[in-house]
């Protein structure tokens, strides 16, 4: 099943820059692992306010419970607010049409 996520990351005030940098580095590594595992399909960075980190992601998981576990494995998850939108095929989706 596929899911769209809206992730907003808010780093707590007073968090040392070194901690933020190290956590972001681990996040990049984990995201690459999740892509290799077939969970992270796409990731976009929409416009955001200064100091705000937002991401839109397309994910694959057996169900929402599995996806929540996948997202919890992200190092930045402790600072994230997550919105999960389950996706179902649409009958008019051009990608579902066969030639």
Evaluate the radius of gyration: 15 Å
Give the overall pLDDT as a whole number: 94
Low-confidence segments, given as residue ranges, are: none
Q: CATH homologous superfamily, by name?
A: Dimeric alpha+beta barrel
CATH arch. level architecture: 2-Layer Sandwich
- Class from secondary-structure proportions: alpha+beta
CATH fold-level assignment: Alpha-Beta Plaits
Strands of the widest sheet, in order across it, are 2-3-1-4
What is the distance, rounded to the nearest whole angstrom, between the alpha carbons of the first and last residues?
24 Å
CATH class, named Alpha Beta
- Characterize the overall form: elongated
DSSP E strands, number: 4
What's the domain count?
1
Condensed summary:
With 99 residues, the protein is of the alpha+beta class. Helix content is 29%, strand content 29%.
Describe this structure in words.
This protein has 99 residues and is an alpha+beta fold. The chain has a single domain, classed as Dimeric alpha+beta barrel (Alpha-Beta Plaits, 2-Layer Sandwich), CATH 3.30.70. Helix content is 29%, strand content 29%. The chain is built from 2 helices and 4 strands. Strand 2 (40-44) and strand 3 (53-60) form a beta hairpin. The longest helix is centred in the first third of the chain and has 20 residues, at 17-36. The protein is elongated. The two termini are 24 Å apart.
